[in-house]
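protien #1 (seq + structre)
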Amino acid sequence: MNLQTSFSVDSSNLRTYPVGSSNIPCWFVFFLGVILFAWPAAADYNPGPAAEKIDQFIAAHLTEQKLEASPEISDEQFLRRTFLAIIGRIPTIEEANAFLESKASDKHSALIQQLLANDAGYTAHHYQFWADLLRIPTVNHWSLEYRLWVQEQIAANVRYDEFVRKLVTGHGLVFDNPAGGYYIRDTGMPLDNMSNTVRVFLGTRLECAQCHDHPFDKWTQMDYFKMAAFTYGFDHRGGNRHRSGIHNALREEERAAYFEAVGEAKKFPYLKNEDQIDKFLKKDSSKKTLGQQQLTEAQFRERGLRGIKARTALEEHNEAIYGSIGGLYNSTTYLEVRHLSETDLHLPHDYQYDDAKPHDLVPPGTMFGDDISPQADPAARKKAYATWLTDSENPRFTRVIVNRLWKRAFGVGIFEPVDDLTEHTVITQPELLGYLENLMRELDFDIRAFQKVLFNTELFRREKFRGEHVPGMPFRFSGPLMERMSAEQIWDSIGTLVLPEIDTHAPNRPKLLSRLAEKRAVYNSLNGYPLAEVLPRVKAAGDLRREFYATQAAFSKRITAAYDDGKSDIAKQLTAELKEKTRKVDQRSKAIVLVDLKGGLPADSGMMMTGNSLASSESAAANDIIRNSKPRNAPEGLDKDERKRWDDREKKQFQLFRDSVKGLARAVDLDSPARTGHFLRVFGQSDREVIENAVANSSVPQSLYLLNGPLSVAIHNSNSVLGSQLESASTTEEKVELVYRALFSRKPTKRESTRILTEYEKYGEEAIEDLVWVLLNSRQFLFIQ
């Protein structure tokens, strides 16, 4: 069956859009505060007057430009657009029916309020915005706490200025203050971290000024380094307070063995090797030492060699312990933001301007606005910097966030680029921008309340501008800019068609929380007990490793001999055996040292962060579908060959369904960036290496993924949400309508329905499956109308 020629969606509805356009944080107490105090202010806020004022600014500007506003969209389009804008997915049929069948005069505002109050859906969608800005990866061990903390801030609707202050003042262990992940993200790159801070929160790019005065803006290289001085001198690799203690203890034991062997602990020099003995004896001062100890040179040399031998023997004995230290402690590095002494910032060696000299000490200083009083304490200095940054009177802090949220709602900022605001930036609607800034201040930086205003404007309900918008040219806002769904919106929308209650279906959350608890348990085992308790355990692990050295050496000889004899199969078998033995030794070593882990799990159930509001996110309905799914039985009346074809096809499609739903959850619950080749990466998900690095351009792999991938099969499979609805439909007309309502939130036109019913007469149920496939691949599905 040639799908591209057999039927298509009605061209009157499918517009041709341009393609490419142990110490545990008080989570529970915190979350109770969220429930009681955070959201009601935004929920009770009446957005009408502010939304009307915004529309007046837009209308006046369009009149000045002799332009007309775009027509108002239908309820079906508004429904779909609002779901995608606020919670990042398309509505279910039931959600669509509730809105479309409502006769209430305020149903549009009520829908906006309902979706803004959907904490799980709102958090899932809004997190992608912040994860892309902050470049939050989820595969690094240090980012686990940070990732969930950011989600908590979003769910709690923490004031924007407070959220940013927490990030910029992040300090200490991530277990106690997960916001420290903001600095750990740029470990070893303090200058880049400052550049990113200014770009994200002040919309200003200072990168050029790191090497020379900015060629296109007023910022000097000195401005750059003065800003960097506020947060310079922080180390992010610490956290393992016992690691150096264990090293020092072992070195002290080796030193003690040396002096015990020489027999003169207080007077005899500490010599590392025989060469140092020779150098010492050649000094004139050596005669005094020999005289005091009544030793000849030969006796001195003999004692020195005896001491070196004793120390060397102990060093060799401790070698396995040192190896154990690295293996155990390396997994808990990059967990703490701490101050370093004597790390003040100095100008680079090639500084070339007259206001200072190379290597001069750089005092902290603000780019603009009020100066900050000098702070000797690094933590106090960083807090003062955060206060300056987030001040409501900061000329760029408020302006940048309102412009970012405006672009998020309407597709393009009032000024562009949103993160390259300069003295030369042309703002075509300064009065509107000024009003939005004042509104954000009046709302006390309540992000949800501010978005509530934007979504209640007439502008949000206008048809989208479908022409080509040239970057750098003013956008007049006759309607929002046409955009393709993000990778996460497409993925989450497909999930909505397959599993119920997708917003709360988080099958990976228990695993994530287990990883968090395990990391805490490992850290506590290594650092949470007195050094006197930890050191013997590490030594015991070293003893185990030392005993294993002989086994490793014996296996290595046998493997080498096997390869020399041309017996590669035996060599590979021996290699596999050695790997298994090594794995078991590692397990035994960890069991000795990591006392808070029992059987690979935290021994203390209290370390599972049960107070985390995101911990209980689980959909029983989705789990029931996954657990109870099964292939359909063949219908009655089929002959043997027809039944076999049915069974084979059903088993194949069922397996595709099972494979698809195995890892299906909202994108926020998956590792990000996803692995190479995953749907999200193919459709342009950010790699989280660069600020806002997601793309919405079309590509051949995207087309191939939708054309040939298993997702369309999973959508219409009888076990999925849509598939079960199709299975229950009594007529073909009802099935066709269900597909359109599920994917487009509207009924099919008469032309669409007639065409598909004709195909159904020829191909039966296959026509319905192909309809799902066609609509999923259509621009009408992929673009936000």
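ok now protien #2
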Amino acid sequence: MAKVYVSSTIADLEAERQAVIDWLVAAQHQVVHSYRPSSETVRGSCLDDVDTCDLYVLILGHRYGFQPADDNPEGLSITHLEFRRAGQSGKRRVALVRTSIPDERLSDMDDPQKWARVRAFRAEVAGAVRAAEFGDLRGLVQGLSTGVQAELEKIQAELAQRAAAPVGGGRAVRLAPRPPFLGGREDLLAELDALLAGGEAAGPRVVALHGLAGTGKTSVAVTCAHNHLAEGGIMWHFAAEDPAVLAAGFTELATALGVREGAGDPVVAVHGALAGSSGWLLVFDNAPGPEAVEGFVPPVGNGRVLITSRSALWPRGQGLEVPVLDLEAAADFLAARTGDTDRQAAAGLAEAVGGLPLALEQAAAYAQATGTSLATYLALFHKRRADLLARGQPARYGGTVAATWALAFAELEQTAPGAAWLLRLLAFCAPEAIPLRLLLQARPGLTEQIPAEVAPVLLALLDDELAVGDAVAALRRYSLVRPAGDGLVLVHRLVQAITRAQLSAEAAGQWEKAAAALVDAAVPADARQAAAWPIYAVLLPHARAVLDLTSPGMSRIAQYLGYSGSYRAARDLFQLIAGAYGESDTYGPEHRGTLGARNELARWTGAVGGNAAGARDQLAALLPIIERVEGPEHPHTLNTRGRLARWTGEAGDAAGARDQLAALLPIIERVEGPEHPPTLWVRGNLARWTGEAGDAAGARDQAAALLPIMERVLGPEHRDTLTARHSLARWTGEAGDAAGARDQAAALLPINERVLGPEHPHTLTDRDQLASWTGEAGDAAGARDQFAALLPVRERIQGPGHPETRATRDSLAYWTEQASRDRATEVD
């Protein structure tokens, strides 16, 4: 870490000054900038700070700056004085000179005397140092990345050389230069220091930094070593990828330590020297795995060992994963590295590359080399991602993302072909947790759905946990996958992109079809079963990634969204599904799949809230088509009639809904049977709309007669049974028994919370009902408190303007007033 003094005028160079400071902070250097405008007293402290810095950076514009009156015979500005002081002190100096004048009002061009001083100062700077010129912030950062970075590297080399100088023998230092940028790694470095410092076990403290190629493992290790450089001792950086090169590194260290005598083993000699020393730190860089460094890591001694490796398979307590950067830190890096102030583009690009440091550095290098803005790069990246990942010259990395990973993929093909096949499958899933155990199950009819070209290798993995485990272990040796829970793995989005890009169009199509077949087969059959919702949730992103909108699995996914309470998402997805069916040459507007999707679209359109009339009108338009295509008594036709009746009632015509259902009931009883679930659904809705039409006692009696049948046929916790219990509670209260309704609602609520979840819309409706009947039964304060607890949940889940949220707000106001009146009555 170098101490850098930043010198400039303030009024005209505020943005440039901040850009330089941000760049230096991102590069992990200590920034000093004591200057304040128009201050006599600050001159002394500024010049003192210049004396203590390692590097002086001048940003020179078109304004001369404040000129102290005392002890300043030449009338120089503070900035000019700082520049001269740095030269007198022998400090390294870098000058960044602005050629454009963004705002002439902030320059001294209108003041002949000051303008002459500006020109004289610029001439003096040009004669003393090789100044880098810039016209805007991006050009300024280009100057930082060349001139300033070169000087910082020289300073780092000098610090390392001083640290390596003998102070009593046994000193040796060989480290790569400190990385210029390592933003967003502060917590990781702190954790690494704690691991290297802790532990009571005898012998060196060993930490293996592992992660995907391009996450910056070496940068973290080298930065950690530089942070401890001032402590002295032996610090040595080994290339550990090749055993022969690693052995040669020990020969060099033994020579540097002066401990190699005769033809003895240099590894043994170094181990012996380290056994009697303390405070040493060795870096084994890019080790293939634990076995590659097993004979080289010192067995004894009071020191520290840092290993970097793509392999995640390290002994417990040694491994520390180097993750990708979080998106905010990644965007900060791009802004500081390029000088591009388009924060939205930086954030978008950070997300597009998944926070991978190598890809970020590569993008920044390409943008600087070509003069491309981050926004332009991002737009091009979306179109030609694979091509861009092969371009750009990232500093301090072995190669581009594409080149680095192509080598890993080639090695994988040779050593573990099954893992390479598995990676191709995973490449077509979404970049979220992938449920391997769920996908790789043999299911009836699945074999016929998998393309013949990939079936032999893929089917070998089905229901063979050992084969899958071997493949995952091989992928983890390159950190190409990460565990994300029991049976779940994560693959970085760029690993997926490059894996796909390496396939021919024909092969990519085959693997995409295979992924779609596995996902479609894994989607559970009944979206109404709450127990299956976690499976739907983990499959959802992968279904959206690979399934065709007209696939059966996609319709089940859409139904899951609706049944689990995401009504709007269900509506939007069925809108897409219905459109895909209707516009397809294979299906068309009157295909059964199209009609079914339109039916579901109407259902969830109404469920979103406030659009019951829209659902009714959609179903009214759909019914005659279904009657003509399917027949008047086909189950699909009867289902549509039932839904039309329901949304007729929801739209305000309760009597019309009652009459439609009453006409439908004898038909569906004859066609489906008196205890078939669709028949029971019609009976339940008939009870509801009988009550809504004004006959609460009749609705109560119908619900009471229906409930035991539903409990027997469907089960006591089926969602339709729970709906029937809710209906019975409601109409019991409406018929005059508020206390009975309250007790029924109180018994139902915990079941709904357990079966559907505490924030499901049906659960919220039950909470609303319980609060209402609590108040009607005489406990206004209790109703008030229950509505007060319910309102913020509705506002968060359904939105403040949703009709049910507004109704809850009105109920809270009503019961608050009633509770106040009751309280006043008690006082009187």
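The CA atoms of residues 209 and 320 lie 5 Å apart.
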